[in-house]
């Protein structure tokens, strides 16, 4: 008997389907993915409904799902919910896109050239630990209280993190690819354009997806600056009047919009990079 014959042979074909679900980084049928995702989203709602139905908490602190739904309908019909959603989406996307417009090329240079990294990365690391809310008084002095101040707060909250993440994505490009291009006589510009950027694009899209989620988390902070509309403003106003159902409605709406944005990025990644597992 040879050594090859003595080794135990894998029996992947005979493994039960459910056992393969728990393989490390295994694949799932699309139907199973949708069912599990739906169950994961539905379970907290059921627990929330059970707590309110059994009277385990006061409606002042934990309103029922029905109360939150009714408040959302009233907000839509009587209080201009569509306008609040529109202005909040504008502020978040404006701050996020402004961050991406500057952070992508800057992070590319930090990740590519060591002198740029040595010059800019410590400063970026230093500023990114400063809380965005602490900049509100300065932003009001510099920009005023118009829309620019809300956009700038979201920009500050996302820009410095995005720069460092982009730089790290660029640094993950294998050096062997760069050396191969250098061997074939490629210039520095050609290496950036034809080697580094194509290799880093999937990771860069994931970075944009993650930082877009961060931009939404700064919405309420941004709308502290003399706002009179928007989802964050509505949440803060509801807090003053103890309208807990409206607070829940605003938080859930931000979560839904953020989830839709995240799924849009994932869809874009599947279309642009079909060979990647997403």
Automatic annotation (TrEMBL):
The ABC transmembrane type-1 domain, residue ranges: 85-265
GO biological process: alkanesulfonate transmembrane transport
Major location category of this protein: membrane
Annotated Pfam families: BPD_transp_1
Cited Gene3D superfamilies: MetI-like (1.10.3720.10)
Bilayer disposition of the protein: Multi-pass membrane protein
PANTHER family tied to this protein: ABC TRANSPORTER PERMEASE PROTEIN MJ0413-RELATED, ALKANE SULFONATE ABC TRANSPORTER-RELATED, MEMBRANE SUBUNIT
Protein name: NitT/TauT family transport system permease protein
Protein species of origin: Pseudomonas panipatensis
């Amino acid at each position: 008997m040879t050594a090859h014959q003595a080794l135990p042979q894998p029996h992947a074909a005979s493994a039960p389907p459910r056992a393969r679900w728990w393989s490390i980084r295994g694949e799932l049928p699309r139907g199973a993915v949708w069912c599990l995702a739906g169950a994961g989203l539905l379970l907290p709602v059921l627990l929330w409904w059970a707590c309110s139905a059994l009277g385990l908490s006061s409606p002042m602190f934990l309103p029922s799902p029905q109360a939150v739904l009714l408040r959302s309908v009233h907000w839509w019909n009587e209080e201009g919910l569509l306008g609040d959603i529109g202005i909040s989406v504008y502020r978040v996307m404006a701050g996020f896109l402004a961050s991406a417009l500057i952070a992508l090329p800057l992070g590319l240079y930090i990740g590519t050239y060591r002198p740029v990294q040595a010059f800019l990365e410590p400063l970026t690391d230093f500023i990114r630990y400063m809380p965005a809310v602490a900049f509100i008084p300065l932003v009001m002095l510099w920009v005023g209280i118009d829309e620019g101040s809300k956009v700038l707060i979201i920009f500050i909250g996302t820009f410095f993190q995005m720069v460092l993440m982009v730089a790290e994505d660029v640094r993950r490009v294998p050096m062997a690819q760069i050396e191969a291009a250098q061997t074939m006589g490629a210039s520095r510009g050609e290496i950036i354009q034809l080697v580094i950027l194509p290799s880093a694009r999937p990771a860069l899209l994931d970075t944009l997806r993650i930082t877009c989620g961060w931009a939404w988390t700064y919405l309420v902070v941004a709308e502290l600056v003399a706002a009179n509309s928007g989802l964050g403003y509505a949440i803060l106003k509801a807090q003053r009047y103890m309208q807990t159902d409206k607070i829940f409605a605003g938080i859930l709406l931000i979560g839904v919009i953020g989830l839709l944005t995240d799924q849009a990025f994932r869809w874009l990644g599947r279309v642009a990079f079909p060979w990647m597992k997403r």
